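DATA CLASS: polypeptide
GOAL: derive structure tokens

***
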Amino acid sequence: MSQIEGGRPSSGLLNRRGALSADAPLPIRPRRRWHVNPVLPLLVIFVLFCAALFAPFITPWDPIKHDLIHSLMPPAWVPGGSMAHLLGTDSFGRDVFSRLLYGTRVTFLVVCFSLIVAVTIGTSVGLVAGYKGGKVDAVLMRLTDSLLTLPRILVAIIVAAAVGASFQTLVLVVGCLVWMSIARLVRAETKTVQNKEFVSYARAIGVPSWVIILRHILPNVFPVLIVVTTLEISHVIMLEAGLSFLGAGLPPPQPSWGGMIADGRSLISTGWWIALFPGLMIVVTILSCNGIGDWLRDFLDPKTRQRGY
């Protein structure tokens, strides 16, 4: 008989007064896992989305129009600043706040369309590899592993130099560079789901493979797909910012967070605000997306919910 039954010590561990004896082991309580409250990350993403959507109504300044008379104007709270340019201006006199808002719009669009490309490719490869197995699985996974070894930034720069920097090129390059992680997780989950009884029954009655994949396997893989897609948002943001910083993203003078950091890297001592604020936007957005992804991972995990974590 165990010494601890039902969360209470057995009678063998009690003294005459009914208390725990000195040599009795203390009952072990399960440690509760700390989880993320999604309210703040969701609020941050919602505010950024609204700011990007209504950027023309929030700020009156054109993000690409030069105004050399007001170049390198500091933020409003710094001596020499003006409330007309809340976050100051860059070396060309462009309003930093306006460029941040329009850069947020660019980032959201790149993330949205790039993930559509990545999820489509990664889900298709993962489902086929996991369901078929054998040589098909081996070939697709070796291809995926080979692509994972390629340096993403270098490949993107080569493609941008060969094709030309544009929004369409950026979306396709980023989407084609992040689908591999999605494919590996979808493939692992597919191998687990295909051993279930309902899949075996569907095979036994002659249901076509594509119907089994779409009707029975994909809905069960969908929770994992949502989580990995959310977590990949931060990778897409970092990749887009890095490419824009190196000149392989959106062509100037289109605003982007990485391009703004590149514009301000040589003016750290005189125009520190040019690179600081887009860097903060990248950090805040990535932390918020990771927080939402961690919460979704805990929320969609049935084991976590059953334990009350």
